[in-house]
User: What shape does this take?
Amino acid sequence: MKSVDSFIEVLNEERNINKMLLEISIQKKDFIINNKSKEMSSLMIQEQNHIKRIIELEKLRAGIILGIQKELDIPNITNIKEVINSVNEEKSKEIDLLAKELKEVLKALQNNNNLNNNLLNITLEYLDLNINLLTSRAEPKTYGKSASEKKNKGNNFFDTKY
Assistant: This one.
């Protein structure tokens, strides 16, 4: 049952790291709203470090699953329910609780990340609009001028977007 205990430890650490990522995503939302790009950079570094650790834990968990398969003589484990159904009641409840908590945290994290993505898109559209307003020509665009006059007169660095 050493592999099952290791599996529980890995699930617990994954849940805790994802909770930290959730807190970071909430902070990112505030930084996006309040236009705090410098603070956002430090959060992104923290987020990357947590993601690296989750990748390491996923690899470790895959190895532990192989150990559980051998210990409990299960031919192939494809989901966590198979582990829950194969261990004693105490470990089963503990794994089930961790899995449910992890699922809830991941769902909240996904929702916050989607919100942050939408906020960033709105911010980018706003910036694009402002750039276009600042770089657009003062004269109205009309028909009738020759192509050479249009080509030489007031070329902008940015294309205007309508």
User: Anything to note?
Assistant: The chain has one domain: 2-140. Helices lie at 2-33, 37-72, 80-86, 89-135, 147-152.
